Amino acid sequence: MAKDFGTMEDSNRSANPSIHEVSDPARRLWVHGGLAALAGSVLAPWLAGCASAPAGGAPLLGFKGIPPTQADGLVVPEGYVAEVLAPWGEPVGIPGQMPAWRPDASNSAAEQAVQMGMHHDGIHFYPLEGSATHGLLVMNHEYVDDGLLHPDGTKTWSADKVRKAQAAHGVSVIEVALKDGRWQMVRSSRWARRFTAFAPFAVQGPAAGHALMKTAADPDGRTVLGTLNNCASGMTPWGTYLSGEENWAFYFDGGDSIDADQKRWGLPRSGFYRWAAHDERFDARRHPNEFHRFGWVVEIDPLDPTSLPVKRTALGRAAHEGAWVGVTQDGRAVVYSGEDARFEYIYKFVSRDRIAPGGGRANRELLDHGTLYVARFDADGSGRWLPLVHGQGPLTPANGFADPGEVVIKTRQASDRLGATKMDRPEWLAIDQAAREVYCTLTNNSARGAPGMPGPDAANPRANNVMGQIIRWKEDGDFDATTFRWNHLVLAGDPANARPEAQGNIKGDLFACPDGLMLDARGVLWIQTDAHATQMYKGEFARIGSNQMLACDRTSGEIRRFLTGPVNCEITGATMTPDLRTLFINVQHPGETPSDRSDPAEPDKYSRWPSGQPGARPRSATVAIRRRDGGIVGT
Ligand code: FEO
Ligand code: CA
Ligand code: CA
Fold first, then answer.
1. By CB neighbour count within 10 A (0-12 exposed, 13-18 middle, 19+ buried), where does 325 fall?
2. Spatial contact of 249 and 143, defined as CB atoms under 8 Å apart
3. N or C: which end of the chain has fewer CB within 10 A?
4. What angle do CA 386, 10, 30 make, to 5 degrees?
């Protein structure tokens, strides 16, 4: 998401000091003494054998890279075409419920609840009967711009507006097909669904029915209304969709009575979206346990239109960016996730049971039983997964963890106790199943090394980290290993930059603030960025360009720019058809204003994408990208 909520919380100032803070003067010199030293130490051991080479000797990256642009449009390489498929407000295709989008934003909350939500993010393609030209797209709608969502923006505020904002959140399932050379939504569709911030979700795992999950409206603590701030996504090997609830804390009002646990999660005095004004369950003073019912990974079975989505509490509560699944050699699921907040953590969950044949229904409880771990990255390039198990080590009733449910509800606090490594905002992960390697974007952390904050460490080596990095690790053995080796794939930024904190070691096209990641079946690692002009000096931004998508050949290390997005957008989410001939991406918040709330009197102040019409409200949208000759994307 564009808004850096890290600035809204200073809870980490009171967290236990990082055991990885750099105190060794030699290390500090190494960090600040230039990137050659870095490349020579931690990076070197892996470079020879890390990647998948393309078959037949053809170069992995075959497209002609594009220069940085700040055009208000989507730019792709020569020979490619990008077509808008599913913008905010289009009816998703629920039979009998297909209200047309109104460009003046006058659709009601009820209409919005059956239309595409706002601010598209993680996305995945689900083939129907194995097809590469017909399937479902499932995607997140992370947050809203109330300035665009209502005819007069936030000039007035009402229960109807809160309801419409809640309806524009969540997840969409749409049916799509390639017809007459163009991807189209199939409407109506028996698969089309919307999951909003008031749709029912079951709660499963250790926190289900826990005293801290019970509310007046749900005395059993087993059914939550809504999912919030759904950011990244992952597809499970059994065919379901995982979605992370990321910056959910900022929807609640804490007032003047915020306790230590709420503070650790960044509960603000007043929620950014002002929902509590008309929906009291977002007033944490009146309903403190409602706050515990968000921050989970949710699982949706898009291929079963009658299925109830589930909050999987065994995966821990966090500002989850998303969740991604690897498989052990004996068939157990290993779910990796991180939380995108400054100085927070990376997790993995190892299922107790094996994945069963039979899709989502056969695996209804797979992610409810297993072991959750948090990562520690040591300075020598090794790492350890620390078990978040009730009764082990400090995770005892005496320390505030009464039972396994309380450990997962207080995952951050438990991770603090274990001395996990405080990272530079972990965003997306990508898993190389064959090589048992995992990649994670650490988007930026300008508070690293600030007074009173953790300083640089080996995994997060730059103070005032405005550019971000991609870290990777290889498990020592199978995916369920408790130790690993790690290094950096790349430090983003300009190698020629005079500012040490903005220098990077990119080999190829420049970028900043890596966020989305996708590893395709050929072995190309696709990188999407969420860079803020405000974090860079003007000249740096001009050289790096607007938000973009790049392709990385992990063997050569080359990174090549593939796409740039419209003004003030973020490129979020990527998925491909099984034949790799269509790439779907999401363009989020084109034209976003610095305040995150557009002026409805001038909605096109920064962007008119995708319509290009004067005065048009910019719309987040799904885009289908193909080669004009029908070839494989990226070759
Ligand atoms: Fe929703 Fe961390 O981006
Ligand atoms: Ca981001
Ligand atoms: Ca993101």
1. buried
2. no
3. C
4. 60
Ligand 1 pocket, 142 CB below 6 A? yes
**pLDDT of 208-227, one tens digit each?**
999 999 999 999 999 999 99
- What distance in angstroms lies between residue 233's CA and the mean position of ligand 3's atoms? 10
**AA letter at 257:** S
The Cα–Cα gap between 238 and 387 comes to 26
CA distance 168 to 144: 7
Q: What is the DSSP string of 270-293?
A: S-TT--TTT-GGGBTTT-GGGGGG
Strand order across the 382-387 sheet: 324-327, 332-338, 346-354, 370-377, 382-387, 483-491, 469-475, 437-442, 426-432
Q: What is the DSSP letter of 76?
A: -
Does the beta carbon of 1 sit less than 6 angstroms from any atom of ligand 1?
Answer: yes
- Residue with CA at minimum distance from ligand 1 atom 1: 1
Under 8 Å CB-to-CB from 204, ≥6 apart: which residues? 310, 311, 312, 313, 314, 365, 367, 368
**Residues 409-453: pLDDT tens digits?**
999 999 999 999 999 999 999 999 999 999 999 999 999 999 999
Residue 443 CA: nearest ligand 1 atom is 2
Q: Degrees (nearest 5) of the Cα angle 10, 11, 13? A: 75
Ligand 3 midpoint to CA 570 (Å): 9
What is the torsion angle, in degrees rounded to the nearest 10, for the CA atoms of residue 573, residue 578, residue 583 and residue 586? -30
Angle, CA of 468, 439 and 123, to the nearest 5°:
90
Cα–Cα dist 18/588, whole Å: 34
CA 78 to centroid of ligand 1, rounded, Å: 30
Ligand nearest to the CA of 513: 2
Residue 309 is predicted with a pLDDT of: 98
pLDDT beyond 70 at 132:
yes
Which residues make beta-bridge pairs with 517?
527
Q: How far is the CA of 119 from the centre of ligand 3 (A)?
A: 11
Contact 580, 547 (CB under 8 A): no
Q: Is 253 in the pocket of ligand 1 (CB under 6 A)?
A: no
* Closest of 427, 415, 438 to residue 342, by C-alpha: 427
Atom of ligand 1 nearest to the CA of 425: 2
